[in-house]
Design brief:
335 residues; globular; mainly alpha; 15 helices
Length: 335
């Protein structure tokens, strides 16, 4: 019996309601656990792929209504959980549509990611316009609250040297500057979160294709996603972004720094995907897999994401993959 046949027996149509509830509960659990919320869309995407669009929509609508009702009736219930679940549902829907429509994952990432950017950007603008105080004012209040907590923690600690204390004071005594930096970076935040969130959802869903492939015939594999290559013409706006960012210190208008920074990070997310593909092939070339590979990937994303982006930039000229001879496809195992 093949692995796919074994999986088909495990994920057959019997007891579908308990399995659907399990996927919904798993999504809620991931949404409520900080950093793990980035994976929250995966169970919902699998629900779409296993049971179809109608049941997937029904599961999402029921879960959102339930969470919204709990937020109104249960004191202390985290209202933000409704928003997290709604975002996970949107990413799951987009991920499932890429698979169900047999769209190349790279093409789907680019076009569907752009749709997510437009939707997310529109929501941010609408919130900024409709909020009584404005989004910038809310950011300012949050920054002031965080800096006040940092000041309090610093006063309770005596293990701070003179240089560190001066640097700390210079940081916490400029809440307006920090607020302006965050507010001016909202475009890159929306862009990077939209694309990176969709990429993670696609990556984990395709990596667990053995769970759903018997129900949704998808002709592409994880390899097609990780072999991402940014267009060569991206080099020109990349150079322009560096000129604008650095040129603010040499006579260009101050606004050029904001434009350059936003443009650089928006382009950088694509080079991050390309650099990860090279890094992933390098780990396969070294025959590092399983849980150890997962740790390498997790720590690299957390501690060296800029390194991966730079690696992706240099891959345009050096094509690092030609040095790797292990062509085994990375598909079907879990993250």
């Amino acid at each position: 019996m093949t692995k796919v046949e074994q999986t088909s027996q495990i994920f057959d149509q019997q007891a579908s309601v308990p399995k659907l509830l399990f996927l919904a509960i798993m999504t809620i659990a991931l949404c409520s656990f900080g950093p793990m919320s980035i994976f929250a869309s995966v169970p919902l995407a699998i629900a779409f792929l296993l049971y179809g669009r109608l049941i997937g929509f029904g599961l999402g609508a029921f879960s959102i209504a339930l969470l919204w009702g709990l937020s109104l009736t249960v004191k202390g219930f985290p209202v933000g959980l409704v928003g997290y679940y709604g975002s996970a549902f949107l990413y799951a829907l987009v991920t499932a549509e890429i698979v169900l429509r047999n769209i190349n994952p790279v093409k789907g990432l680019i076009y569907m990611g752009l749709i997510l950017v437009i939707i997310s950007g529109s929501l941010v603008v609408a919130y900024d316009r409709l909020s009584p105080t404005g989004l910038k004012s809310e950011i300012s209040q949050y920054v002031s609250s965080v800096l006040s907590q940092l000041k309090k923690s610093k006063q309770e600690s005596s293990e701070v040297s003179g240089d560190e204390e001066r640097a700390f004071d210079d940081f916490v005594n400029k809440p307006e500057a920090l607020t302006n930096d965050i507010y001016s970076s909202l475009p890159l935040i929306v862009f990077c979160v939209s694309y990176f969130g969709l990429w993670v959802s696609l990556y984990v869903t395709l990596r667990n294709a053995i769970v759903w492939r018997y129900k949704a015939a998808y002709k592409y594999s994880l390899r097609d996603l990780t072999y991402f290559k940014a267009p060569e013409f991206f080099v020109y706006p990349l150079i322009l972004s560096l000129v604008l960012w650095l040129g603010a210190d040499y006579g260009l208008p101050k606004e050029s720094e904001v434009i350059g920074r936003n443009l650089l990070y928006c382009l950088g997310v694509f080079y991050l995907f390309q650099g990860f593909g090279v890094y992933n092939d390098f780990l396969k070339f070294l025959k590092i897999g399983g849980f150890i590979k997962t740790l390498f990937i997790a720590f690299t994303f957390l501690l060296a994401s800029k390194f991966l982006a730079i690696l992706g930039i240099f891959d345009l000229w050096f094509d690092f993959r030609r040095f790797f001879t292990n062509s085994k496809k990375d598909e079907g195992d879990t993250i």
